[in-house]
Amino acid sequence: MERLELQKDLVAAFRWTARLNMNEAVSNHFSVCLPNSNDSFYVNRAGIHFSRVKVSDLVLVDRSNLEKIKKDPSLIDPTAINIHGEIHKKVLKLVILFWLNEVT
């Protein structure tokens, strides 16, 4: 699967989640691993409503930029890096990961 196709599929998941009204918490994030990788993944930028996420709002996280991204929590919610990064490393067959927090 090409990167752009992965990105478009991830954006579609955000849009569909918004249609289901499951997008209210501010630290929700989805990620998708690049093919044949367990440490490079796209994740949504912080603070963008799921109904408005575009391919250009996805950030590629990998070894080369991980420390820079960690220093700027306004770019990506820190829990996305900490949770998704570790899960993608440990569960090699996992491609897509959705994280939704319940709003009470």
Task: Summarize, please.
This protein has 104 residues and is of the alpha+beta class. The protein contains three helices and four strands.
Order of helices and strands: HEEEHHE
Global shape: globular
Which spans of ≥5 residues are poorly predicted at pLDDT below 50? none
The CATH topology turns out to be L-fuculose-1-phosphate Aldolase
Q: Helix- and strand-based class?
A: alpha+beta
Question: What portion of residues belong to β-strands?
Answer: 15-25%
Total individual domains: 1
Alpha-carbon Rg, integer: 13 Å
Note down, in words, how this protein is organized.
The chain is of the alpha+beta class and 104 residues long. It has one domain: Class II aldolase/adducin N-terminal domain (L-fuculose-1-phosphate Aldolase), CATH 3.40.225.10. The chain is 34% helix and 16% strand. It contains three helices and four strands; from the N terminus they run αβββααβ. It has a four-stranded antiparallel beta sheet, with helices on both faces. The longest helix has 17 residues.
